[in-house]
Structures are given as C-alpha cells and as structure tokens.
Design a protein that fits this description.
With about 350 residues, this protein is of the alpha/beta class. Helix content is about 40%, strand content about 15%. Strands 1, 2, 3, 4, 5, 6, 7, 8, 9 and 10 form a 10-stranded mixed sheet that branches.
C-alpha cells in the first residue's frame, strides 16, 4: 500500500508552459556540450515505436543529439546485450525495458541524474543500477461490447469458476511476474489451486505480446484478458477501442526500468537522455498514451487509472535472472495446453 499512497499524490497538468518548452529543466547544462559533441545516443527498448519515437523526437529536437532506436522484446534485448557484453562490444547506451534488473550487474553503471530525485521511492533501485520510467500495474481487461460491467467477477477465485468465458479469455506467455505476485499474495498452495482451476474451467489462450493482447481484447477476439498491463489497455482504449480494465485483489506492479551501459559509446548523451526520460515533460508525454507515470506531479491518463485501485493490495515485484527462470517454468507448468 505504500507504493499506492505514493503514486496517488498526483495533480499536475499534462500541458507544458512556454518556459518549460523553451528551457526544459532536464537539460543538464554542465554536460550538454560534451553530450552534443558525442552526436548520438543508442537506445535499446521494448516500447513500441509508435509511442517511443515521437517521445524521443522531443529530446532530439531540444538537443540536436540523434537517437538510434532499437526495439525488441525484453528477452531478446537481454539476450543481445549478454552476447555483446561477452564480446566486449560498445554498441548501446540506454536500455529501457521491464527486465533491466535481470541483467548482470557488471553490464550496467551505477548512476544518478537530477530528475531521479522526483520519482516515487518504488521507482528507484537501491543499488542505483536502474530507475523506472513508468509503472506496469497488472489487472484483468475486458471488451465492453462483449461483457457487461455488472457481470464482471469480484475476485480471481470467482473468475476461476466462470465457465461462461471458457475459450474467450487470454493471457500473455511472459506473465511470470504477475504469477509470482499472485503466489506471494495468496500463498503457494491457494494460488496454485486457483490457477489450475482457472485453466481447467476457462482454458485461456496463450498469446505472445502484451500490446497484441490488449489490441485483441479491444478488437473482440477475446472477451477478457486474465491479466495485462493497465497502461496498454488504456492505450488501446484511448485509441477508440471498446475495452477497459477491471481491478481485482491483488494488483501486481513492476517497473519499466532504465539502465545505462557500462560500455556506453556515448556516456554523456546517455546521462542526458536518461534525465529527459525521468522528466515531467517526458512522463507527461508518455501519459498521453496511457503510460502510468512514476512522478507524483504527473497525472495519469485516464485520470482515475491509479485511484480506481484504491482499497486493493498492491504487490510490487522485481525479478532477478533466477526469478525469471523460476517463474517462467512455473507459468509454463500451470498454463501449458492440456
């Protein structure tokens, strides 16, 4: 609940004043000249290009520093980084994904930039290897044309018995963090029993890609998502699709993290780009697409995206590489086709 109370302290407008637009507070004049001299910054990220490129264009236009953007899944990025690190290649500057904490510690530098002071405490790694740029709250989602709001279950245990949605529900294949949070909240025996009952009664389809899952529910391919990132559901909703979240207890949350390479070819530009990513300007821009901010002075979109979770138990999850492997095995064991 501590995380929830911290994030609820919201209220700033998404609009930017002319002073902010012309003289952004994230510019870091002490390293600006050196960052510009480096000329570019290479960002590895799991954020889709439709959201990320317009956001990073703000940074390019303000600094003159070119952004080289490489998009792939969390697992693909971590695998690529591991190979490049073994080969001692200096090929990237920033990594933005939900799996930065799973990288070996020697891959990342410890760092602080001025804007990290504005973040909620849950968005700060105690070892300073990463800070969060947004929060991934996990809730079920539904298609508002296919499911009446009054018919939605009030608990996961009720959902597990809802045979009327058999074959009409889906979950992403990489939802080990959500599953870990469920086990932590309910206890292993109760959680495992509930999940096996859910699989038996509902036969959820396993899909690959949280954004694809959000879009599929919005398009009516599935009536429900067992769990998905609220930010992606809101993104699809804001683009006109008939979909919304519904909040059950608990709400598992993990962070979309930003780390800086220990072999960054553009170290000053990397620090400046990181400071931009944590800024009010950048966070507000991300919120327009439904991204959940990690600054108390940026309002989420929709405005009740976080407040609707009030009264629910918030379960934060941060994975190590060992956690990732363990919970992937557990997820596959429970949700594999029978």
């Amino acid at each position: 609940m501590k995380l929830f109370k911290l994030v609820l302290a919201l209220g700033a407008s998404l609009s930017l004043s002319p002073a902010q637009a012309s003289d952004p507070d994230w510019m870091m004049p002490d390293i600006l000249a050196a960052a510009k001299a480096e000329g570019s910054v290479t960002i590895y990220s799991s954020v889709n290009e439709g959201e990320a490129l317009p956001q990073w264009r703000i940074f390019e236009q303000a600094t003159g520093i070119k952004v080289n953007y490489v998009r792939a899944s969390d697992a693909q990025l971590n695998g690529r980084i591991a190979v490049e690190h073994r080969a001692q290649q200096a090929s990237w500057d920033l990594i933005v994904s939900s799996a930065v904490s799973q990288l070996n510690q020697d891959v990342l530098i410890q760092y602080d930039v001025p804007q990290t002071a504005t973040l909620i405490e849950a968005a700060k790694d105690k070892n300073r290897r990463w800070y969060a740029v947004s929060a991934y709250y996990n809730t079920p989602a539904y298609n508002t044309k296919l499911v009446n709001k009054a018919d939605l279950p009030k608990s996961y245990e009720e959902l597990a018995k809802a045979k009327q949605w058999r074959g009409k529900i889906a979950i992403d294949t990489n939802d080990g963090k959500w599953l870990a949070g469920m086990f932590r909240h309910f206890g292993e025996d109760r959680a495992r029993k509930m999940m096996l009952e859910l699989v038996e009664n509902l036969r959820p389809t396993i899909v690959d890609g949280h954004l694809a899952l959000a879009r599929n529910v919005g398009a009516g391919e599935y009536a429900l998502a067992l769990s998905n990132y609220t930010a992606l559901t809101h993104n699809v909703q804001l683009n006109g699709a008939p979909t919304d979240t519904f909040v059950l207890d608990p709400v598992v949350v993990f962070m979309h993290q930003l780390g800086i390479s220990a072999r960054a070819p553009h170290p000053k530009a990397a620090l400046l780009a990181a400071n931009f990513a944590f800024s009010q300007q950048s966070q507000a821009f991300g919120a327009r697409s439904g991204r959940t901010p990690v600054r108390p002075d940026v309002e989420p979109n929709p405005p009740d995206a976080i407040s609707r979770m009030q009264g629910r138990t918030i379960v934060p999850v941060v994975f190590t590489p060992e956690d990732e492997r363990k919970w992937k095995r557990t997820f596959d064991e429970i949700f594999k086709p029978r």
